[in-house]
């Protein structure tokens, strides 16, 4: 596990040595009444040493995953309060001590007993207590100056005064303000702070605090049983712990998860791939689709009905939509495998699909874009305007965006069947699109990537650097990841138009990059060289190979990949029969308890 998560699961009593405070008896330190002479007998005695935290060392992964929910260590401030005196009045002095002439909160150790103060000191003290506040301040300054030549005396004064200025702000602040302060810390620092003492542990373990920390990192609440259920009560902190463990396994987990290998399309090419965490759907140019169960590793259904190769697919919780070279779109029930609708209308190969809710948008080599309702099978709209095959489409519920071999991108309002923008600038075929509702990013055979404003219909940036066709892209916020046939992956900032990293070097793909995915803080890329590689999204550094086919470098190819936060699925095979066509799955989740 990364060092950021060390201490996340440890509660205060799990420190390297037991606390000396656990066995303190309050009665040993609390004195209800005392004379001034007795007070200063102790005051001039042995210096009270504040407890120190035991020396800390870097925890191992296993130690960092141990916790308890009943911390017992006391705060230092709690300890001081237990041994501080309340107002103590004296009856042995001629001058009575009023509320303004009292000795507040003097720390009285129970032992050892020291000789009584001399009469001169007691007389000096009575004079001091009778002074005004201003005179006391001047007398204190004069005393310190008098002691300035004696280092031991100054050190003694320092040791006596210093504890009174050490405030535990987390404990002393109202809980709401303490939580407000803590929410500005990274989750890893909150986890470390929780190991300080009992009061900090209870405050740092607040459910709403951890909920906010998880939401800032887009970490979902984990509902499934985990290996941490018995050790972490806070469900949001538990979700964060599982997330950090998952990041560690992606990057460092050894050995790599045992791959689940699914065979079934013989020697045909797998052209499209879908994955929702429970099922895998693979489409092939053998005219069929297969539904695979992640839990059993078995083929649940084989969807047969197309009369040509399947080129594209989409899926919902209960339906699969597929487009084929037979010019039709089919809607299948994912549970029964029954074809519920056959959507006719296109006059050539259905090349691409985009799904939003119950609406699917299809692009075809007949140069049209069509909009369908997958529940009813009804064709809603036909969008005409392109003059060549439509290669890619996107839909966000408002705009349809289509890219075509006529070198243009068109933005449509489907309800009005109207093209609102024709985006011109590419000098060759448009092969890939991503759309986040505000920005359109297009990749073309002209080696260029362009960023467009969907409302204005203008080109914001032209991203140059690739040397060939951009085969796949993914957009997360303002960070774009692009994979190219020039064997490189690039990371861009679309706000500035700058290339942040080029994922190349001696560990780059040996041939064309076929697909890219962003998962957690990593980039996953597949290549025509038969490998799947993992890269750091922040730094662009190569981390390791996740998949390397036996025929790597000898015809093996990974055509498609799909990722969730916890798993990788890839479609692999070869161009020369040196590798069987198969679907490979790696599961990186080692915290979920399977029922």
From TrEMBL:
One Pfam family cited in the UniProt record for this chain: F-box-like
Residue ranges occupied by any F-box domain in the UniProt entry: 167-213
Highest taxon above the source species: Eukaryota
Any single Gene Ontology cellular-component annotation: nucleus
Keyword Secreted: no
GO molecular function, a single term: ubiquitin binding
Keyword Magnesium: no
Name used for this protein in its record: F-box domain-containing protein
Renumbered residue ranges of the record's region Disordered: 1-25
GO biological process terms held by the UniProt record: proteasome-mediated ubiquitin-dependent protein catabolic process; ubiquitin recycling
Keywords per UniProt: Repeat, WD repeat
Biased composition range(s): Low complexity: 8-21
WD repeat residue intervals: 276-302, 303-342, 343-382, 383-412, 423-462, 463-502, 506-545
InterPro entries: F-box-like_dom_sf (IPR036047), F-box_dom (IPR001810), WD40/YVTN_repeat-like_dom_sf (IPR015943), WD40_PAC1 (IPR020472), WD40_repeat_CS (IPR019775), WD40_repeat_dom_sf (IPR036322), WD40_rpt (IPR001680)
């Amino acid at each position: 596990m990364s060092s950021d998560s060390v201490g996340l699961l440890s509660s205060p009593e799990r420190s390297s040595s037991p606390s000396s405070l656990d066995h303190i008896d309050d009665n040993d330190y609390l004195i209800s009444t005392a004379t001034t002479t007795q007070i200063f007998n102790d005051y001039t005695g042995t210096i009270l040493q504040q407890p120190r935290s035991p020396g800390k060392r870097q925890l191992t992964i296993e130690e960092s995953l141990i916790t308890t929910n009943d911390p017992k260590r006391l705060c230092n401030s709690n300890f001081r309060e237990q041994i501080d005196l309340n107002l103590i009045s004296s009856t042995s002095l001629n001058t009575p001590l009023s509320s303004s002439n009292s000795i507040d909160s003097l720390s009285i150790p129970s032992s050892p007993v020291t000789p009584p103060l001399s009469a001169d000191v007691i007389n000096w003290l009575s004079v001091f207590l009778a002074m005004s506040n201003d005179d006391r301040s001047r007398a204190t300054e004069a005393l310190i100056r008098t002691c300035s030549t004696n280092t031991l005396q100054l050190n003694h004064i320092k040791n006596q005064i210093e504890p009174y200025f050490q405030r535990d702000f987390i404990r002393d602040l109202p809980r709401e303000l303490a939580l407000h302060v803590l929410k500005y810390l990274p989750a890893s620092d909150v986890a470390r702070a929780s190991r300080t003492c009992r009061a900090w542990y209870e405050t740092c373990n607040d459910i709403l605090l951890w909920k906010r920390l998880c939401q800032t990192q887009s970490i979902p609440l984990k509902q499934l049983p985990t290996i941490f259920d018995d050790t972490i009560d806070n469900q949001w902190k538990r979700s964060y712990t599982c997330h950090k463990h998952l990041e560690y396994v992606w990057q460092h987990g050894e050995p790599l998860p045992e791959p689940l290998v699914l065979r079934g399309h013989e020697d045909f090419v797998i052209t499209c791939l879908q994955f929702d965490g429970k099922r895998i759907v693979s489409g092939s140019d053998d005219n069929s689709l297969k539904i695979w169960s992640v839990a059993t590793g078995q083929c649940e259904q084989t969807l047969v009905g197309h009369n040509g190769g399947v080129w594209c697919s989409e899926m919902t919780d209960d339906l699969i939509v597929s487009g084929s070279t037979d010019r039709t779109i089919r809607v299948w029930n994912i549970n029964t495998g029954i074809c519920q609708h056959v959507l006719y209308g296109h006059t050539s190969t259905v090349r691409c699909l985009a799904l939003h809710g119950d609406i699917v948008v299809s692009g075809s080599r007949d140069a049209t874009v069509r909009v369908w309702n997958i529940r009813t099978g009804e064709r809603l709209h036909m969008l005409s305007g392109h003059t060549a095959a439509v290669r890619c489409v996107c839909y966000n519920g408002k705009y349809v965006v289509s890219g075509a071999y006529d070198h243009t991108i068109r933005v449509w309002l489907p309800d009005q069947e109207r093209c609102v923008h024709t985006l011109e600038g590419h000098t060759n075929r448009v092969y890939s699109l991503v759309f986040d509702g505000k920005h359109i990013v297009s990749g073309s055979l002209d080696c260029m990537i362009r960023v467009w404003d969907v409302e204005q219909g203008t080109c914001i940036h032209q991203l140059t650097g690739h040397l060939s066709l951009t085969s796949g892209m993914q957009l997360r916020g303002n960070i774009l990841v692009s994979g190219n046939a020039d064997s490189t992956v690039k990371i861009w900032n679309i706000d500035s138009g700058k290339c942040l990293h080029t994922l190349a070097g001696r560990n780059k793909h040996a041939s064309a990059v076929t697909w890219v995915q962003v998962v957690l803080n990593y980039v996953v890329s597949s290549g025509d060289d038969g490998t799947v590689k993992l890269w750091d999204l922040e730094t662009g550094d190569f981390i390791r190979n996740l998949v390397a086919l036996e025929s790597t470098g000898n015809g093996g190819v990974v055509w498609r990949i799909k990722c969730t936060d916890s798993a990788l699925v890839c479609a692999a095979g070869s161009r020369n029969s040196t590798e069987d066509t198969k679907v490979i799955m790696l599961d990186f989740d080692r915290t979920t308890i399977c029922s």
